[in-house]
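TOKENISE THE FOLD
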Amino acid sequence: MRKITCEWKPHDSTTISLDYIENFRTIDEVYRRGLHEHEKVTEVSLIRSGSSKYYIDDNFYEVHAHDLVVINAQKLHSLGDILPSLIIGIHIPSLIDPATIPVFHFDSKVFSIMERITKTAFELMKREDIDSHELANNLIIASLMPFINEKVSAHEHIKKTTPAIVSRAESFINQNFEKSINVQDICKNLSVSHTYLDKKFRENIGTTPIKYLMSRRMGEAQRLLLENPDWSITQVAMHVGINNPNYFQRNFKLFTGVSPQQFRIKIDKKEFEERQF
């Protein structure tokens, strides 16, 4: 995996611009990604191979090779085991209508065009001069995005409706996961039984309230570990509503497959490795 940030920035902060490109390959060691969102960045993923289920804004979607996945800013999502892909981060609140299914399939010819444009931009951003980064930005914003918009303009809308009780529970969790809440607090806030809420979660989003809460906490913990290298594990745990650092470390390893310390070391190392396509 390698992530490169575009160093060129427009004078007007409201202008649509390229933020980063990530390259995930089959040989890369990738860890499970918890529930998270991007405040100002919309992500566009070009799926190069494999199949998986991605959770995006209350729904699970089957994702396959040659799919393009669009996740608007401020949409909660979890990619599980991330597939080999090119992920483009763009400074824009949204690229698609929120009611549109965010997974689009393309034939190999069209997908190859989008992949080549993205790979060219990625290679340009390996250079240190600002002109190369500006050119990469222009390739993505002026060439790739209009091409994608043309292809996805008429697409199927989401038909599934999440029950109000599940939406309310998700909202409560997302607003309070940084506090020391548990499933009993969620049920008390909604005036429902644990059994009933478990049943509704399983029926509609394929998990339980406690697993949803833990995924939200672990997703935020992953972000904090990478963005705050000076923070201790205890500080990270406290910021995601877990007061016991040992409990946090056990659950982080269960969720991710590695300890918080290993996650930080290994991901940091990969960020600075030079990898080829």
